[in-house]
Specification:
The structure is a single chain. Among the domains are: 135 residues, Rossmann fold (3-Layer(aba) Sandwich); 175 residues, 2-Layer Sandwich (Heat Shock Protein 90); 126 residues, Rossmann fold (3-Layer(aba) Sandwich); 108 residues, Arc Repressor Mutant, subunit A. It is of the alpha/beta class. The radius of gyration is 63 Å and the shape is elongated. The two termini are 108 Å apart. It is 53% helix and 14% strand. It has 30 helices and 24 strands. It has a 6-stranded parallel sheet, with helices on both faces. Strands 14-16-17-19-18 form a 5-stranded mixed sheet. A 5-stranded parallel sheet has the order 21-20-22-23-24, sandwiched between helices. Bound molecules: beta-D-fructofuranose. The site of beta-D-fructofuranose has 14 residues, from α2.
Length: 887
């Protein structure tokens, strides 16, 4: 879980980074604009600065206005520095007063642009503004012209100590000083303000009423002076100013309207100020001192200039609206980008959550499935384990019950044991059946039968225990319901339902076992008066291993699952109707004729079903086979049987079953068994599959691959019922397969059958032999062995020393091994075969040569002619003389 949270965090961080990376990488700058005053000229400049940022979108502006207050301006500059602005644009109120604050900022490395006004310090990065001297000079020249070189002038100056006021005065004086007819008769300072201009005009008129012209250092003060004079009714004075602002009420309009005789365009050019700032910030080349061009405005050019300005304003308006739109689009775009990224994150998270939930569900299901399978495997294993001891109980008991010496009471008791063993066997089989069903290996064996009669029989089984529990159990079915179904499975369904009902019905309760026809279907039901099943549990009641909460009274939890599976296997359905406290009614609906082509009679159906589990073929074995027809290897000598099983009880049981007719050899595992098989060469082997050290399959394979033991029939004995194990057994060369718990009679029959049916080989000598040698077909291990044996004999026929010892030595095996192998393969002992070979050779010599009987007897290896004659007579039924009458 921790891992998952960690992964989600990582995902989150990655997405945030992604989101951030969507923005621009360009560095942003903050520029502080420190204005000395607030008026229409500065408003225009500020607007132009803002518009300038449209071009430099990485620049943010901060404004401060000192309202003509030096102290305040210094404070505002310091504040900008503290805030960490990247550049300062300052229009210093006066030359000396704010220099220290500007120097400080400059010393801290902040670039400083002085605009419009100057300081007395060299600590600035660049200056931009109009040439105030030139402005004063141009206006001076106009005045000279206007007054025709004669007249009295009064000057209303801007703020004393501010650089424009100083320079404009100088420029003006420069122009008029060359004209002695013109004199400045009064001079006042009005701090650049209109109201102060009015006041100063009053004072001028009071002292020097004969004035021809007023030179105000800006238009606002000029208009103030005009208004003061008009108030007094004085209209013969001319006024000139500076600024010529193209705004309503500005200098341009006043010149056009004749209120001012002239003005001088004192440009604001905020766009150029921004350009300079951007160049400095981006380390681009720039000029340190930048003087903007101005121009004289008179009545002649004022209207044109206003017109131009009007157009310019329109353009500006369009630009502003365009920019507004672009801003809008940008904002929308940014929103959309954020929405996109956000919806990406949400989608991503949703997918993650869905995948996580899906995986959790799948894993949970897998775990449940695994747990269920493990449970089933456990039951299956236990069942396999139980079958061996069950065999060891059931079979001996069946044998003992048949004993006539038992008294009635003993027989009754044994019958109880036998019945209970059967119940246990049925339970075990039920689990194995279920496993089979799970593996989809369950098949249908159908028969036609009358249902009600069988239902009565099945009911009888439960009557005794119902009686003990004082439960009334009754059958409710019409007399004749003929069906075609798998009777074994229908019986199992009914048994399970009845035993279930008995388990959950209290004393004094009632169980009704019913059947009826419904259309082409048959309904079988078992209703009880037990405690019933809670509504929410009815849907799970047929699930394997499901047991009603608090209702468990033991059981495997697969009984009802089998009911459902067996019903569905036959094309039917299983359901339950129940109310808590009011009992339950289990209803099975089956087709009256179950579909399928494997149709047998009832008895066979039972047999086949049983066989499918137990390999119980007892009923198929004719009693004839069971009679004493067991092959003996010699007169009185019993065939040998090697039983290999790690369970000593099984070995002992086999001994009990077969000990009277076979010599039983025993081994506890495959390895020991193999040694015994090679040493003793038994006639038949019965071997368990699952054993320590070497299992039955490997044992079987090795026995079949050894020339000495390859002929020995092997019966594999195992608790496994699964087909693949059976197939594997045959693949490894097994001759038969018996499933535990096996029936003793079946084992006896199988052993006998295999021994009876083994094909004995004939060893041919003489002309027969030459025919045999010509055969080119691949030879089995057995015939190779026999060939070798025959050849040794033939090569040594003339040798009277030829005996079994000699041959076994030649063949690299022991005398006993040779004896047992040859005896098993041919049914005859090696000695007899050697003798027969000699006699046949002798017979041919008698026929084809003139040799005497004695000569021939010696030649074929008989040490005495009389013994030869005896043997010859025994074998051919005549004497050698009769064969060769010349003797
Ligand atoms: C604006 C203003 C203008 C003048 C300039 C001189 O504040 O008074 O009218 O031309 O300043 O700095």
């Amino acid at each position: 879980m921790k891992m998952k949270v960690g992964r989600l965090h990582l995902l989150y961080i990655a997405l945030i980074l992604l989101l951030c990376s969507c923005g621009k990488n360009e560095r942003r700058f903050t520029v502080g604009v420190s204005q000395c005053s607030e008026d229409i000229w500065r408003d225009k400049l500020n607007d132009e600065l803002v518009m300038g940022t449209y071009q430099y979108e990485n620049i943010d502006l901060k404004f401060a206005s000192a309202n003509d207050n030096d102290k305040l301006q210094k404070e505002q500059i310091k504040k900008f520095v503290d805030e960490g602005v990247d550049l300062l644009i300052v229009s210093p109120n006066q030359v000396h007063t704010v220099s220290s604050a500007i120097d400080e900022a400059y010393d801290k490395g902040i670039p400083v642009i002085l605009f419009d006004r100057k300081t007395d310090s060299e600590k600035y990065t660049a200056f931009i503004g109009a040439d105030n001297f030139e402005a004063g000079r141009a206006i001076g020249e106009f005045v000279v012209q206007q007054l025709n070189g004669n007249g009295q002038i009064a000057e209303i100056a801007g703020l004393e100590g501010s650089s424009p006021a100083i320079e404009r005065h100088k420029g003006f004086m420069d122009a008029i000083s060359k004209h002695p007819g013109i004199s400045i008769v009064n001079r006042k300072s009005a701090d650049w303000l209109k109201e102060r201009g009015q006041v100063m005009m009053d004072s001028i008129l009071n002292k020097t009423p004969d004035i021809d012209l007023i030179f105000a250092q800006n238009d606002r003060m000029a208009i103030g002076a005009l208004q003061a004079a008009e108030k007094r009714g004085i209209r013969n004075i001319q006024y000139v100013g500076i600024d010529a602002l193209p705004v309503p009420g500005g200098g341009l309009e006043n010149v056009r309207d004749g209120h001012l005789a002239a003005s001088y365009i004192y440009p604001t050019r905020g766009d150029l100020v921004m350009q300079l700032a951007a160049n400095i910030l981006e380390n681009k080349p720039f000029e340190r001192d930048n003087y903007l061009k101005g121009a004289l405005v008179t009545k002649n050019n004022a209207p044109v200039l206003l017109l131009q300005n009007e157009e310019l304003n329109k353009e500006r308006g369009r630009l502003a609206s365009l920019h507004g739109k672009v801003d809008n689009y940008l904002a929308q775009y940014n929103h959309q980008k954020v929405y996109l990224v956000l919806s990406g994150i949400i989608t991503f998270l949703l997918i993650g959550i869905v995948v996580y939930i899906y995986r959790t569900i799948v894993m949970k299901r897998q775990m449940e499935e695994e747990a269920t399978n493990a449970k089933l495997q456990f039951f299956t294993n236990i069942s396999h384990e139980l079958r061996t001891p069950l065999t060891l109980i059931a079979d001996p008991i069946d044998n003992i019950i048949r004993d006539d010496n038992l008294n009635k009471q003993q027989r009754n008791m044994l019958q109880i044991v036998s019945r209970n063993v059967n119940v246990l066997t049925r339970l075990v089989n039920e689990i194995l059946d279920f496993r089979k069903m799970q593996d989809k290996k369950m098949k249908l064996t159908l028969s036609d039968f009358e249902l009600t009669g069988y239902m009565q029989q099945w009911l009888n089984v439960f009557e005794a225990s119902a009686e003990r529990k004082k439960i009334k159990i009754e059958l409710n079915a019409p007399e004749n319901i003929s069906v075609r179904a798998d009777i074994y499975k229908v019986e199992r369904i009914c048994y399970n339902l009845l035993s279930n009902a008995l388990k959950y019905t209290n004393e004094g309760g009632r169980i009704v076992f019913a059947a009826k026809k419904v259309g082409d279907k048959v309904e079988i039901s078992v209703a009880d008066t037990g405690k019933g099943i809670p509504r929410n549990e009815t849907q799970h009641i047929f699930d394997r291993f499901y047991q009603v909460k608090g209702g468990s009274k033991g059981g495997t939890g697969i009984g009802l699952a089998i009911v459902k599976a067996f019903s569905e296997l036959q094309g039917g359905k299983a359901r339950v109707e129940s109310e808590e406290g009011k009992g339950a009614n289990f209803i099975i609906t089956l087709p009256q004729t179950v579909a399928g082509d494997n149709i047998v009679d009832v008895q066979e159906a039972y047999t086949l079903n049983e066989k499918a589990i137990e390999d119980n073929a007892a009923t198929n074995i004719s009693t004839e086979i069971m009679t004493d027809k067991i092959t003996t290897t010699d007169k009185g000598e019993k065939p040998s049987l090697l039983v290999i099983d790690d369970n000593a009880d099984i070995r002992a049981y086999v001994m009990t079953l077969l000990g009277d007719k076979y010599n039983i050899l025993q081994a506890a595992d495959g390895n020991e068994g193999l040694k015994k098989a090679i040493r003793e060469v038994p006639d038949i082997i019965v071997c368990d599959v699952m054993m320590p050290v070497m299992d039955g399959l490997e044992f079987c394979q090795r026995v079949k691959n050894d020339a000495l033991t390859s002929h020995i029939p092997v019966i594999l004995l195992t608790a496994k019922t699964l087909e693949e194990h059976r197939a594997a057994g045959y693949e490894f060369g097994a001759d038969a397969y018996l499933t535990k718990p096996f029936n003793g009679d079946v084992l006896k029959a199988r052993v006998k059958n295999l021994l009876d049916n083994r094909k004995l080989m004939k060893i041919a000598f003489g002309s027969d032999a030459s025919q045999q040698e010509e055969t080119t077909a691949p030879k089995s291990a057995e015939s190779q062995f026999v060939d070798k044996f025959r050849k040794v004999i033939q090569d040594n026929l003339g040798n009277s020393d030829l005996n079994v010892d000699r041959i076994s030595a030649d063949m690299g095996i022991s005398r006993a091994q040779l004896y047992r192998k040859i005896k098993s393969l041919t049914g005859t002992s090696p000695v007899d075969i050697i003798r027969e070979a000699r006699l046949k050779r002798a017979d041919r010599l008698l026929e084809t040569t003139d040799k005497s009987i004695s000569e021939i007897a010696y030649e074929v290896g008989f040490s005495s002619p009389s013994y030869f004659t005896k043997c010859y007579r025994e074998h051919f039924g005549r004497t050698p003389n009769e064969k060769n009458p010349r003797q």
